[in-house]
Amino acid sequence: MFASAPMEAAFLLARVLFGGTLAFMGLNHFMDVEGMAGYAEYKGLPAPTLSVLGSGAVLVLGGLSLIAGVFPAVGAAAIAVFLLVSAATMHDFWRMEGEEAQNEMTAFLKNVYGAGAALAFLAVASATWPYALNVGL
Fold this sequence. Notes:
Layout: H1 5-31, H2 33-42, H3 48-68, H4 72-90, H5 98-123
Helix pairs in contact: 1-3, 2-3, 3-4, 4-5
Main location: membrane
Membrane topology: Multi-pass membrane protein
Organism: Halovivax cerinus
């Protein structure tokens, strides 16, 4: 699937950038549980603290899964689902006005293109990944 060393290196870099960013975002969930739970409650999520902890775990584990190549299909699918659900529930720009609407639309669009990237990783999850542990489905 990866025909050259530059392609292998680019794919590794993509995994590190995407997975690392998501894992870092997940760590932020654990570092500011109270603040994020308050925002989740404001957005009407049930069990806001549990939602923050659960989504933090999905981001950390999913991101690390893609970096290491350990159960990448599970990690990529979990990330895609989380980002799409989060886009619709947390970043409802269509209900806002002014600058708040613009900020929520930007966050919504980031989640949508992130979900697209996760789906691309899911599409290649069954291949042997270069520089990866290649454990999983």
